[in-house]
Queue: 4 jobs
Job 1
Amino acid sequence: MINVEETKFVCFRCGNEKVVKRGKQFNAKKTIWKQRWYCNNCGFKFVSKKQNLDDSYEPPKFEYQPKPIMPIDWANYNQAQINEKMMFLDILSGVLDCFAFEQAKTNGRHLTNTKAVLFGMLVKIYNKNSSRRTISDLKLMKELNYTKQVPCFSTLMNYFNNEGFTPILEKMVELTALPLKGVETDFASDATGFSTSQFGRWFDEKWGEEKEKRIYRKLHAMVGVHSNVDTHCIITQQEGAGTADTTQYKPLLYKTAINFKMNEVSADLAYSSRENLEATVQVGALPYIPFKSNVTGGNNGLIWRKMYLYFKDKPQEFFEHYHKRSNVETTFSMIKQKFSGFLMTKTLTANTNEILCKVIAHNICCLISAYYELGLEKAFCTKAQETNKISILI
């Protein structure tokens, strides 16, 4: 409590000095108070105009009350896991049928079937096998009419280094997420790393010695919080220009907004900026991004101030929306546990294509789970897509 000098008060009505204190009047946050008075002569009650600071008051510490955990529908979960592999092959074939690959005329021997190569790459990632052991699976799938050609194991790995496959795989990520358009309206964004077999070395000037660290690739993703499907992703190096989380937020946001109706987006403190908040509102969604401890709701835009006041005044409601962001961590865990968080390829192009294959395989598995657990009944192979295929020149 700050000591203030006692001031001699007189009644505002009768001017009598026989007034006594009658407690304090606090503001809403109990940080400022005024003295209340009572006149013994005329009975008038009044409040002093001087404000006093109350340093002894500490607001109660906020503790988030999490929502109860929903029980798992084990019957439908079991069905999704039992039938996953066969449905994975069917859906993968349906996605590849959406493309019409046209090979450029070249001299020399005939090129490998592009659709067969993509099918083999996805099967390799799904089974987590080496390219040599994948060939046996592809021969069995050829007998079941899932593929028309079985490429050599070395050819399969060589195509991971093909830069022309990167936009095709990115389009496949988009196609595998589209059937969940009617399910997903809330999204979350974050980034994670996939380790490689390479190490980077540098000379530390401070300690005068050479050091090394493992090189990894960053996956920036926008994820639907209900089915954990990846709507769009960007792969970058671990450091350097354009690798920060906040710089990749708007491309992820705008690409997702093309195919999905976005109601809200959750992200962590790394994405907290006025530009990201305003971009989210422009696509019709509300940004639930927490604020750092050193920021205020000052002159940083109308959206910034409104979300800041909501963050401060109603933290429980704000964090109920914000903690949907935990689903993006779940998505990364699902990808790494099921398809490995370690990259077998070495170059940046091959690393990018390998991560995209992991995301596509994850999205197909999400579709299978949504079919059993969410009642999703949409498919890829329709008559409309047979007449409107995506033409790609290889």
Job 2
Amino acid sequence: MKVIRSSLLEGARSARGTAVVVDVFRAFSCTPLLFSLGVRHSVLVAAPEEALRLKSQDEELILIGEVGGVPVEGFDLGNSPSQILRRGAEFFKGKAVVQRTSAGVQGALAALEAADEVLLGSFMVARATAGYLKARAPEEVSLIAMGVQLKEKAPEDEWCTRYLAHLLDGTEYDHNLALREIIFQETTQKFLRRDKAHFPAEDPILCLQRDIYDFVLKVTRQENLVVVNKEEI
């Protein structure tokens, strides 16, 4: 199994084999949390207008996401795991959600055009994802760190792909160093300043939890939709 680490939109567009699209802050930390609270599936869309159109056809859908980090008018929630957790399972159980984000979702949609298979990655599902990959042993695995708005690398995503590589092939990984480089950088500090409501300080705490779910998140096309389903390990 050849493991390739790459970054940003270019990395997603050049994905080969099985792609793991990583967005730790916050899209693909939200997704496993949503499944743990009982959602049936998630639909990934490129634009807010598409999400709103889907809800006009099915008012039971829950819309989650952001543009430039800011929640979208007409959506039910922003791209925030702490907001999701606060709502609780009673809000989500048995429902379908639609996610639109500026980095992770866009990367997953791009990777789906290039790779044989697409999984969603974060620290929360890293060990389960690695177990899935080792069991199936594809010839190539593309670990793609989506970064900030697809424009610059983000330490949390880079370290998560490094952790996945460590689990797959023994690549060196130091979690203390990872935390030091993540926590004291702007991608985390913008939450800890507590000066913007759409960047809750609780979000990094949730996003940096490792290996807490024992399922993988698999992206497939179903008719004219891109759907994420949970697959137990």
Job 3
Amino acid sequence: MDGGAAPGRERYQRLLAMARRLPPVVTAVVHPCDAVSLAGAVEAYRLGLISPILVAPPGRLEELARQNNIDITGLPLVASEHSHDSAAKAVALVREAKAEALMKGSLHTDELMGAVVAHNSGMRTARRISHCFIMDVPGHAAPLIITDAAVNIAPTLEDKVDIVQNAIDLAHALGIERPLVAILSAMETVTPKVPSTIEAAALCKMADRGQITGGVLDGPLALDNAISREAAAIKHIVSPVAGHANILVVPDLEAGNMLAKSLSFLAGAESAGIVLGARVPIILTSRADSLVSRIGSCAVASLVAARRRRTAEEALQ
């Protein structure tokens, strides 16, 4: 199957099909100096998802491509000296409107995000930057968006407003018109002893007052009654979100990271990862990510970039 997708990954195939109907998104690929990251970018190019600009030391990149039989003939290359320089030059491509997405290569996440959030980067917006995993879990009816499991370590209530809004906007880009958002905690009752339950209740009221838009929120909800109709029924939870959630908002990075990796390594889920809230979508992959995950992340970035183009065009009309 295209992109190395395994049998039974029909939802990912639909995601790729949606993205391949769009023009390839011009993507600055930041320091793809290992075989996995370079091969992922080249495969996404082959599938028509991205139009890559490789940002890396030329000699190192060419030797890597030769050793691994990866064809980079004709792909544009911006020469850099090292990983920090690659990050700075990739961000400059966005600032100069020469790229509309970033893709992490073999550099550390902190190096890339440091260049993104730098004062003079031109990448910041009014929104808090946050990360979303899009998880395709075997046996679960629909993809799950988990946020934030990679960027915000201990987000405040104010941070979570943007984290939720970023996830809702992502769901819209994926074609989910009315995303159902579960604000997770260890329980479904509000108690001052568990601060995440207080924040969940506050976020829901903020959505009622129009401070968060485009989705239906409920919380606090425990994981079981957020995704299982049976669990919600047993606990007598009456809610349009309980048992049907599209988006899972975790209390902090540790909870989100463990949830996402548990689904990947214990349940066999495939995941795509993207950073939102910056001027362009950022494809944030891990060294342990499969080729399917890397291709899926590129497809998601393409859909997000396309929605942003449409929004910008509508604003000018």
Job 4
Amino acid sequence: MLSVSEPCLGQEERRALVDVIDSGWITMGEKVRQFEQAFAALHGANDSVALSSCTAALHLILLGLGLGPCDEVLVPAMTFAATSNCVLYVGAKPVFVDIESTDVPLMSLDDAAAKCTARTKAVIIVHYAGFLADREKWQAFAAKQGLLLVEDAAHASGLSEAGTFGVAAAFSFYGNKNMTTAEGGAVIAREPGLLDRIRQARGHGLSTGTFQRHVNAMPGYDLTTLGYNYRMDELRAAIGLVQLKKVLEWNEHRRQLTSLYRTYLSERAQQVVVPFSAPRKTACHIMPVVLPRDSNRPDVIASLRTSGVQTTIHYPPTHLFSYYQGKFPGVKLPETEDFARRELTLPLHPKMQETHVDLVTRALADAL
């Protein structure tokens, strides 16, 4: 079975794990700090904070910005549920915004403007599939509306422009991402004070961490703020340091595979829409396509699976989940709902070659 995604892990990652185990120190320590600095440098930032997940990163960004009850945050529904969940974590209200179109399934500026109220304090843009939103337009929008601009950059690791839009950006290193630490995330923020607040909150709000107390032989500490257990460990950071050396090469391979997909689909399945027809900066995280309206998606999925091709859906819209329908009933997002009914994600990862793209596109054309 050709998988939708597959992590690239090898002997170098294995040796990095063994080195950490042999060192005798596996909780947050020097490796985590090295990873934070290397990840920041890759994205042209001065520093970053490594965390246990991208969800933790988004949560602590919103917490560090002081968002809370009575505040509203604009979010897309065409994303993983963690984006809006984190708004609820701080007691604020997520306000769901439609996408631009089938071709550009990114949050709509026009719909975002229409949904601003006196309570709107922030907007979280998502770089869906690794395709960057329009930085200048969103910065102008945020400035005009007086909003905090936050990036959910879970799909965009390795793009130097990611993390440069607004006050902070959250990244993911989950197992299906462009680079992985199995579980893990990071925050890039331009304001050192925000990074400091996030760094302290990830470790229960303590004034010093275990490694600092170990190195300095000072067992005492204070608790100065409410915090969480959102730390990254040395094992994950060691894997991350190896993956950082390869992510740019992997991203380029993803772009080449995506270009092949566009070429083959235009020849073999012209009725299929491949989003982002216009050039745009991208990490090519996933390969979404939109099926014709008269197709039966479950049958297409089953046919592809018979051909040895796994597929999935990115994403079921957040506002249609039972929990969110119960909490915020009556939300209608026509473009998002139409896209989600017909979207299908095809395999895309660095272990693939041209022969795999040929197989997938032929199988999809046959299925249709």
